[in-house]
Amino acid sequence: MSDVEPLPYLSLRQRPRIKWPSGARVALWVAPNVEVYELLPPANPLFTAWGRVPSPPDVMSYAYRDYGNRVGFWRVLEVLDRHGVRATASLNVAVLDRFPEIARAMTERDWAIMGHGLYNTRFLYGIGSEDERALYRDMRERVRRGTGGDMRGVFGPHASLSPHTMDLLADEGFLYSADWLLDDQPFPIAPVRGRLVGVPYSFEINDGPLFLGSFSDDEFVQRCRDQFDVLYAEGAEDGRVMCIAFHPFLLGQPHRIDLLDEALGYVLGHEDVWLTTADEIAQWYLDNVYDEAVLAAR
């Protein structure tokens, strides 16, 4: 592992101010986690994919998540289309081969693709550096072959990382990582070589921790409204990022789909919201703020 601190400290008061395109106060990106799990995943001695049972298959947990690909994704897609959202798919890249209908739907809408591992049952814990490099190259090639587009950023599968992940991402020419949940603005990551942006993802506005953590369904919309209100007020002086992250197997359930519609309607009902993708946020930050932020951190 590199001994270079990957995340230089840069307080909100110390950093350069952000002025988003067209004077937007908040850059909003919407991140559906389009995932595929394996009924019988390869073993990893450092992490168990299916913790409910002593050994796989865990049919109940597998089937619950596969609902997202069979039903939930299509229900979510209708809501996103209705609001004109070009999403950033947090994508287990094996989806492109396993579910060509989903691949076509994302491609037709020109969604940005953020690599989220190959499967959500294969983790980066314990992976060797060259094996991880090969994984990123394979994922990128699958995205090019399956969508005609590029994979410009990464969020570790099941939020897993290795000690060399950031260096490899920069070395392979990626723009950003969404793994660091520590800011309301983009921020510079300091790999050994190259440049890499941290794009704020969210576990607070995220149906996974909420619904799997037994919060009420109404909590999702309330959090979206409350978080947006604060970021929107602050963004009048210094632009903010808001990410709405969700999983089709959770938010795509019949009794929850209206929550997504309501949340998007509220946020997008305001002026000065830049509805964008993680790719565009990272590129804009690199072009306009990154170098100044690095100098401020030093």
Describe the structure in your own words.
There is one protein chain. The protein is α/β, with parallel strands linked by helices and 298 residues long. The protein has one domain: TIM Barrel (Alpha-Beta Barrel). Helices cover 40% and strands 13% of the residues. The protein has eleven helices and nine strands. Strands 1, 2, 3, 4, 5, 6, 7, 8 and 9 form a nine-stranded mixed β-sheet that branches. β3, α4 and β4 form a beta-alpha-beta unit. α1 packs parallel to α9. The chain is globular and about 50 Å long. The mean pLDDT is 95.
What is the H level of CATH, i.e. the homologous superfamily?
Answer: Glycoside hydrolase/deacetylase
Strand content: 5-15%
CATH top level label: Alpha Beta
What's the pLDDT, averaged over the residues? 95
Which blocks of ≥5 consecutive residues have pLDDT under 50? none
Rg, Cα atoms, Å? 19 Å
The largest sheet is: 9 strands, mixed
Q: Supply the helix-strand structural class.
A: alpha/beta
CATH topology: TIM Barrel
Estimate percent helicity: 40-55%
Distance between the termini: 22 Å
C-alpha geometry: globular
Q: How many discrete domains? A: 1
Total number of strands: 9
The assigned CATH architecture is: Alpha-Beta Barrel
**Order of helices and strands, N to C?**
EHEHHEHEHEEEHHEHHEHH
Number of helices: 11
